[in-house]
Amino acid sequence: MTILPTLALRSFVGFDNLFNELESISNQKQSSFPAHDIVRISDDEYEITLAVSGFNKKDINIDVHDGVLTIKGNGGSEVQDDSIQYIYKGIAKRSFEQKFRLEQYVDVKEAKLSNGLLTVSLLREVPEERKPRQIALKTA
């Protein structure tokens, strides 16, 4: 654990849990399955695309809770068919779970499954009262 000098902490007000979360994230082992891309489309739009070949709509569960987007794939049990003889089986259909921490005000716009790719579109919508504004200075 890294201890920051007290002087550095004075500049951070209300971020008590931030340092705990950063340490937690650094200790997590990130799974690389399934392969995925994260793309910034604009300042407020993002897309996460996962390669989920072999999965269909009923095998995938997507939810958002407390700012964490969780995508789970249930590989399920494969149907044994004695008439099929694999020479090589390279398409992984194992279960997976991927988690993505979302910034405040980022919400899932939609999720699409097409041609073995799951695309989750994200949009940041900052409320008007949270946008930067000029503060009028009064004199005595």
SSE layout:
Layout: H1 6-9, H2 16-27, E1 36-40, E2 45-51, E3 60-65, E4 68-73, E5 96-101, E6 106-114, E7 117-124
Antiparallel strand pairs: 1-2, 2-7, 3-4, 4-5, 6-7
Description:
- The protein has helices at residues 6-9, 16-27, and strands spanning 36-40, 45-51, 60-65, 68-73, 96-101, 106-114, 117-124.
- The protein is mainly beta.
- It contains two helices and seven strands.
- Strand 6 and strand 7 form a beta hairpin.
- The chain has a domain at 32-77 and 90-130: Immunoglobulin-like (Sandwich), CATH 2.60.40.790.
- The strands form two sheets. A four-stranded antiparallel beta sheet has the order 1-2-7-6, with no helix packed on it.
- Helices cover 11% and strands 34% of the residues.
Short structural summary:
This protein has 140 residues and is mainly beta. It has helices at residues 6-9, 16-27, and strands at 36-40, 45-51, 60-65, 68-73, 96-101, 106-114, 117-124. The protein has a domain at 32-77 and 90-130: Immunoglobulin-like.
* Helix content, binned percent: 10-25%
How many strands, which pairing sense, and closed or not: the largest β-sheet?
Answer: 4 strands, antiparallel
Shape: elongated
Strand content: 25-35%
* Helix/strand class: mainly beta
Question: How many angstroms does the end-to-end distance come to?
Answer: 48 Å
CATH architecture of one domain: Sandwich
Arithmetic mean pLDDT: 81
Number of strands: 7
Q: Helical stretch count?
A: 2
CATH C-level of one domain: Mainly Beta
Radius of gyration: 22 Å
Spatial strand order of the main sheet? 1-2-7-6
The SSE string, one letter per element, is HHEEEEEEE
Instruction: Kindly report the CATH topology of one domain.
Output: Immunoglobulin-like
